[in-house]
Amino acid sequence: MRQEDLLREQVDITEKDAKRNCVDSSNRGAVLMLQGTASDVGKSVIVTALCRIFVQDGIRTAPYKSQNMALNSYVTADGREIGRAQGVQAEACGIEATTDMNPVLIKPTGDMHSQIVVHGKPYQHLSAMKYREEFLPVAQPIVMEALNRLRDEYDLVVLEGAGSPAEINLKQRDIVNMNLAGWAEAPVILVGDIDRGGVFAFLVGTLELLEPEERARVKGFIINKFRGDLELLRPGLDWLEQRTGIPVLGVLPFLPDLEIEAEDSVILDSYASMPKQGRDIDIVVIRYPRISNFTDFDMLAAEPDVSVRYVQRAAELGEPDVIILPGSKDTISDLAFLREQGLDGAIEQYMESSTHSQLVGICGGYQMLGDVLLDPEAVESGKVKQSRGLGWLPLTTTFLPGKKTIRTAGHVLPDAPLSLYTMEPVIPVGGYEIHSGETVYSSQVGFGLVTYGSYVVAHTNDAASTTSRGKDVAPLFLVQSVDEEERMEGVCRIDGRVFGTYLHGLFNSDGYRRAWLDGIRQAKGLEPLAATFSAAARREIAFDRLADHVRGHLDMDQIYEIAGLPKNPQF
């Protein structure tokens, strides 16, 4: 079947829908697009800030990014998967995120292959070349129909580009930068990062590589991440405006401690591998190459008594109170990395020598803690694989076609063997699940030799002879999702020192997070801290702080004019 027919089948695009993309857009909401001179110049953060500012000013606003490449994803209310940045931007707008805000999500599974997610559902695993040659030529109806639905519903849609619009080798089949700006007739603001150096060369060089009609779409510059005296920069700003005829809309000073969820794992480079001084609890997160949803641990890092650090080598492990195996886009490959680095042995040795330390697995990390991982249908990475797990929990995971993407809420089971310190009779938990693996107790898989495709794996009904060190385990949570009956979720070793769960966002549950941390404090002979902050309130404060910062340094009147909006809108 042709890619175009496959896409139509996936998202139910009709010829009528495709023609609708070309009709008059005068009655639709306005559009404003931010593009960057490179990746990681701060486009996502500035879009988040502008979304918040416009909403504060009474404008019904939505974010949009036609194509996003990210391993940090977000689950919508209807159980679909989009880029995390667009989910966060929707939260800044005070609206529910939908797949229209990010119709195409690319999740890399290796250097040359990715899983393509279209409107929140896995579509295909494609090489970079096949994606470019077969998918992109037929993707325009997908991205434009999504954008037009948003424009029909909102007063303003703030579009975000990807990477740079001046990538000459990618421009012809672009669906996320200047081609998209042309289809949508969107004015463009170009963002440059002065912190990396050469910002004037980046801005002018990008313009020089654009076609005349593309260059005409650029209506302003934003210089981001500035540190220093603005007066020393001013001659350069004057030169830039004279050289290009395009106004500088503002210079944004570097804002530390943003507390806005990041999408790109490059931010993990800023985390030290050594524990922070003066923090009582040391938490280590294993940073494997395909780590996903690392924002699971943002609220832990925000706690006043916690140091969160990311490590890649056994020598960096130290003597932590908690070791966390996070999510992964390619669990079996990342498990191999963990072994190559000697982390499996280092973790085992440390857990055996420590009396209170805990080992935690989230999603892919949960799967690694089991006995066996099987991918007989090449679901995760496009290759048939199997692997022996770390053997801390008596579990077997089989990766199956399709993906479970749901929001989940529930509570800690009364008899769960977790080491918690709380006076509350019920501890609520919530989060979301994104996984292809189905995890069961190894004893449920079968006895003797079990065949999975071309693989034969030994299982036994003798619990003592399994590979797992954690044969005595109990479930953790009682949870429920929309259109689903209550079910047990997660597994914990009876001694409370090893547990795993599929719940991303678990540590955003305030009561659970603090009860768990205070349980660790108690095990160390420290007094509990009890409640410290609300994750939801902290997120709202962070949005407002960012919006105030950006509003104070940008010419918002000019930005309103560029977007075609009245300066004092009455919506």
Automatic annotation (TrEMBL):
UniProt keyword terms in alphabetical order: Cobalamin biosynthesis, Glutamine amidotransferase
Gene3D superfamilies referenced in this protein's UniProt entry, alphabetically: 3.40.50.880, P-loop containing nucleotide triphosphate hydrolases
Organism superkingdom: Bacteria
Segments forming domain CobQ/CobB/MinD/ParA nucleotide binding: 33-263
CDD domains listed in its UniProt record: CobQ_N, GATase1_CobQ
Positions annotated as active site in the UniProt record: C363 (nucleophile), H504
Annotated metabolic or biological route of this protein: Cofactor biosynthesis; adenosylcobalamin biosynthesis
Residue ranges annotated for the CobB/CobQ-like glutamine amidotransferase domain, each copy included: 282-510
UniProt cross-references to HAMAP family, sorted A to Z: CobQ (MF_00028)
Primary role: Catalyzes amidations at positions B, D, E, and G on adenosylcobyrinic A,C-diamide. NH(2) groups are provided by glutamine, and one molecule of ATP is hydrogenolyzed for each amidation.
Stated family: Belongs to the CobB/CobQ family. CobQ subfamily.
PANTHER family: COBYRIC ACID SYNTHASE, DETHIOBIOTIN SYNTHETASE
Official protein name in the record: Cobyric acid synthase
Source organism of the structure: Paenibacillus motobuensis
